[in-house]
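Methods: example folding runs. The two proteins below were folded one after another, and each record is reproduced exactly as written to the output file, sequence line first and structure-token line second.
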Amino acid sequence: IAVTLIQRTLTMRVIAVVALTCLSVALSAPSGVAVSDDVKIIVSPLKAESRATDAEFQTLVDNMRAGDADKPSSSQYKLAWGSKLGSNPKPSGANLMTSVQESLFSKSTYAALKKVYDNNIFVADVCTNEADYNSGFKKSILQDLLTAWSSTKPFSLMHDYLVKKGKVSSDMNSFKQFLTTFWFDTYSRCSNKK
């Protein structure tokens, strides 16, 4: 059970890092980089004064990785990469993570993320009605998660970078509200569901 919970937590952490990176790319994509229409709609009200260069963005990513005090060391987890699939891939069905040190759960970012999983905050099926994430219990859990994430060095570096580029407010509360809307607001992808 612990390995499964850690796998889910680490997966969600990877998703969070990808989401932060995607947000940074969407808000400061170098010229010639395609950004999806969905992302353009979300970020269009934001200023578009300056663009990132690939080198600037790579430096940001490198600094975020280096400054991540919560990232697990290679001794804290073991991955089973499996074998090369070849031209007719058939997934093995084995877990990617075979062992994880449970002490990772003591870090605030993982503990907050585990709370999201333990309380089944997200509904995976896009055609299922969901409760609003902006009120009640779900809001408190997600705010705890965002508070844990926003207190980290990678988050601070990303925010500083986006402020420097003129893409987001320097006010952290305004930025967190933007992210809450960007990441957690619900909408339907089904034709007759809300």
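Second run, written to the same file directly after the first:
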Amino acid sequence: DIASVLGVRPEWLSTGAGEMLADSIQITQMQTPVTPQNGIYRVDVLDVKASAGPGALITNDFIETIRAIEYTSEQARSLFGNRPAHHIKVITVTGDSMDTTISPGDEIFVDISSTHFDSDGVYVFVFGKTLHVKRLQMQRDRLAVISDNPIYEKWYVEPGDEDQFYVMA
């Protein structure tokens, strides 16, 4: 289901209430070394669409793995460093607000162990009940949500909105 793939509690995903992270998942993921099976590093391609636009409504709690991409250990190390395979997923981007960086229909690699904003960059996040892929930048006491396509205006996650904002990757 979506919650287990993202390492969050199902109750939090559907209602936004309570603790976000599933403690057992968080601890397991952080302590698992990179050990590809039989020299193969497998990355799941998920049936998830993150919007580079107004936001993709989260409509169900189940995420299906469509297929997987397999890499040799050397290829994986070059692409993903020492990140464990279960941290790396592939999702599809819809919308054109990130055009020039990410085009509509692109499949992108995401690191689902990144669950908080720590520096300027492109993130997958939930705001309210919609899933986005956007550039985030801290500006004074609020977080700017920036589209790389210049026809879209930036918007902000204000300090009072923090309970509706969750970084997913």
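Comment on the second run: Strands lie at 40-51, 56-57, 65-72, 88-94, 107-111, 121-127, 130-139, 142-146, 155-157, 165-167.
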